[in-house]
Amino acid sequence: MLVQIDVSFGLSKYLIFISYFLGEAARIQQCKGRVFALQDEPEVARVWLPNNDSPGLAMARAFGDFCLKDYGLISVPEISYRRLTEKDEFIILATDGVC
Fold first, then answer.
1. What pLDDT shows up at residue 16?
2. Other CB atoms within 10 Å distance of the CB of residue 47
3. Whether this model's pTM surpasses 0.70
4. C-beta neighbour count of 19 within 10 angstroms
5. Residue by residue, what is the 3-state secondary structure of the chain?
6. How many separate domains does the chain show?
7. Which of 7, 48, 53, 86 has the fewest CB neighbours in a 10 Å radius?
């Protein structure tokens, strides 16, 4: 199945994304997890348990999600620190969707 991907944001960013995605998928597959998309959503790769068609999580890193942690999903947040200086004008705290 062919999937059209918008690369208008630049080939170098696209290649970085593909490299990152392949690394995430490889880690999950090495841990016996499965990564594939559903037919009705071919552009959304999901993480599945080895012998069960669930949960179908559409991310490879999920804070606090322990269902798939033994199958390559990273459930512990990546934390970084930076010392603020007088030159810093603002700070951004962001996440991709904590409910």
1. 47
2. 25
3. no
4. 10
5. CCCCCCCCCCHHHHHHHHHHHHHHHHHHHHCCCEEEECCCCCCCEEEEECCEEEEEECCCECCCCCCCHHHCCECCCCCCCCCCCCCCCCCCCCCCCCC
6. 1
7. 86
Q: What is residue 66's predicted lDDT score, i.e. its pLDDT?
A: 79
- Segment 11-52, tens digit of pLDDT: 444 444 555 567 888 888 999 999 888 889 888 888 899 998
Q: Which residues contact 28 (CB under 8 A, 6 or more apart)?
A: 34, 35, 47, 60, 71, 72, 73
User: Which structure tokens are listed for 28?
Assistant: 């999950």
Q: Long-range pairs for 19-24 at CB < 8 Å and ≥24 separation? A: 21/45, 24/60, 24/61
Reading the block at residue 47, the tokens are 């993480």
pLDDT at 3: 41
